Amino acid sequence: MPIVRLAELIDQPEAAGFLRSVVAGGRYGNAYLLHGPAGVGKGTAALAFARALLCERTPGGRRADATGDLFAAAAPAPADPPLDDACGECAACRKTADLQHADLRFLFPVSGEEQKLDTTIAETLQALRDDPLFVFAYEKAASIRISVTRELLRELAFQPYEAPRRVVVVRDADRMREDQYSAMLKSLEEPGAATVWVLTTARLSRLPATIRSRCQRVRFAPLTEAAVARFLADRADVDAGEAALLAALASGSLARALALRDQDVGAVRNQALALLEPARAGDPARLWTSAQAYMQYGRTGREALRRMIEFHMLWLRDLLRAQAGAPAEWLVHRDQEDRIRREAREATPREVRRRLMVLEEALQSIEGNVSPDLTIFSAMARVSTLGARLGENQWPAHATASWDH
Ligand SMILES: [Zn+2]
pTM for this one? Predict the structure, then answer.
């Protein structure tokens, strides 16, 4: 079932609490903007909110003209005290569960050849219906399709089909063109409109200020590691040890954790640590060989490279935890406890923090416009005990030079 209830959202008490209070109040604004980091449940929440808005038992969910309506007898009476979430049982809830409600429109970015987009959209919707753990993934160029917004805007001129209002959910609303925004703006500004817009974005600043200012904003926070790990273990069938590792790597994004789940993270972790071993030991010759091995990752993609560095950072954080006397269950790499304890004894917390800072800088350089090769070689040299001996300021300037592609 793709659309859950607001009560089922994980680890977003403030956002979910606000949305539920809106549902219980039964009066809706023209537009809501759910914003926050990628992969923390904004899209799920947007659809759950839409579902609650359309539910026949929530305060705003019944048509005012229902009395005397042909279907009035079949419509369930509103709940007392007022429901703040979809009931999950009424006719509307059954339809919204499968994205089949005539008054629910769901827009999301797509990419590819224009003539294949209908199929792509249909396939994505079907995948979402079939897989409760479905994760939206877009290419860089993906955008909300123009013909879809055109069709939608024509439809907005008419009354909703079944519900008192129509709900339009736009996922990643920052991926639209200027003329799409202006068309949408007209609807957002219309007083007493029969349409509620629910937009999501992980890139708030990319939305035009005119759109932002007309929406009620709902902020979503990064998920806690514990919540991600619990979700993976309880609902994605991941064993507890791996769930902890994935959650630590996912930086508060469940979508990222789910994407990583399909890779053998244990193997990638070991590879990352093996590559950095000579750096740790301060062996210049092996360091160069190792750096070359890393450079392959630089060519195949920054994402792989980033992950390698992140693994190493997690390892260093475990050393700090061990140095502070943390029990095994607090360690991300608890399956490597002996090695962590040994390395923790061999370095001072200050030295471990220094290495973490070097890697943090390397991560930032990779995000920026710096050659991954240079970044990595420089970072590896500085992470090594060699770096500690030479001192941070003695590394050549090219080590942080930017690179024009
Ligand atoms: Zn319902």
Answer: 0.77
